[in-house]
Amino acid sequence: MLKLKDGAAGGPANPGSGAADTWLRGDGPGATPRGDGDVFQFTIASGAVTEATMQTPSGSTVGLRTPAGLTYAVDGADVVATRVGERGTSTVVYSDTDNDGFYQVVSMSRVMTSAPADDAGRPAHAVAVTLDSTASDVVAVSRLTRSGEEVVVYNADDAPDQVDWGVQQGLVVQTVTGPNGATHWEVFRDGNSDGVYTEVASGTGTMVDLVGVISATDAFASAL
Questions:
Q1: How far apart are CA 73 and CA 206, in angstroms?
Q2: Which of 86, 164, 174, 180 pairs with 100 at a CA distance of 20 to 30 A?
Q3: How confident is the model over 181-209, as pLDDT tens digits?
Q4: Half-sphere CA count of 23, side-chain side, radius 13 A
Q5: Nearest alpha carbon to residue 112 among 15, 7, 197
Q6: Pairing label, strands 61-63, 48-55
Q7: How far apart are CA 89 and CA 79, in angstroms?
Q8: What does the alpha-carbon distance between residue 121 and residue 118 come to, in Å, rounded to a whole number?
Q9: Which helix (H) or strand (E) holds 211?
Q10: What is the DSSP code (8-state) at residue 221?
Q11: Are 189 and 87 in contact (CB under 8 A)?
Q12: Does residue 21 surpass a pLDDT of 50?
């Protein structure tokens, strides 16, 4: 049975740098104190990050933890934190957009590198997708509940302006744009051609290279 869930978009419409606190846990680049806005600082010597800190609301400075698998790299004016976890690779990009010596999070991404697991009986994030006759556009999307029920979250004939579903590189991509222009995106893959697409990447800001997502998930595509 299909049910229509009013306003369902699947993912936060207004992601901010504070979301990095959650992103940098688990298989993310590592837990950090919660930070919003222009609060991160990096000491860079000979093209490498030698120290990473964050300014707290009280004005004090605390060091960012560096769990196993976390690396920093300097990419032009940006600092990129990457952590390779058991299930995926997470990346956070920091940028000093106003040249004041403080950095803010401008994009975050997580790409799966192993087959999704059912944690505590919860199914992997999956959606049933109806494509058009040329398989080049999304007509409708339903999320699958634990009970097997399908809840319609997108219909191309009655879609909110801030939500977009499309097909890119054979993957289904959802983009949600918040009131301030911030974007949250999710990438889904149907590796066994059953019409059910499993989330294989997600993030905020600039979307990851989808060819890279395909390469990272090819080894377990049949399980998607």
A1: 18
A2: 180
A3: 899 999 999 999 999 999 999 999 999 99
A4: 27
A5: 197
A6: antiparallel
A7: 16
A8: 6
A9: helix 210-217
A10: G
A11: no
A12: no
Report the alpha-carbon angle 39-71-218, nearest 5: 115
52-99 residue pLDDT tens: 999 888 888 899 888 888 999 999 889 999 999 888 999 999 999 888
Three-class SS of 127-188: EEEEECCCCCCEEEEEEECCCCCEEEEEEHHHCCCCEEEEEECCEEEEEEECCCCCEEEEEE
Q: What are the structure tokens assigned to 74, written together?
A: 């300097």
Cα–Cα distances in Å, from 39 out to 83, 103, 199, 205?
Answer: 21, 6, 31, 18
Tokens of 84: 């390779």
Q: How far is CA 26 from CA 48, 86, 94, 99, 198, in A?
A: 25, 9, 19, 31, 20
β-strand 104-112 against 78-84: which pairing, if any?
unpaired
Reported as a single tens digit per residue, the pLDDT across 106-162 is 999 999 999 877 654 445 688 999 999 999 999 999 987 777 788 899 998 888 889
Q: What are the tokens at 12?
A: 């936060």
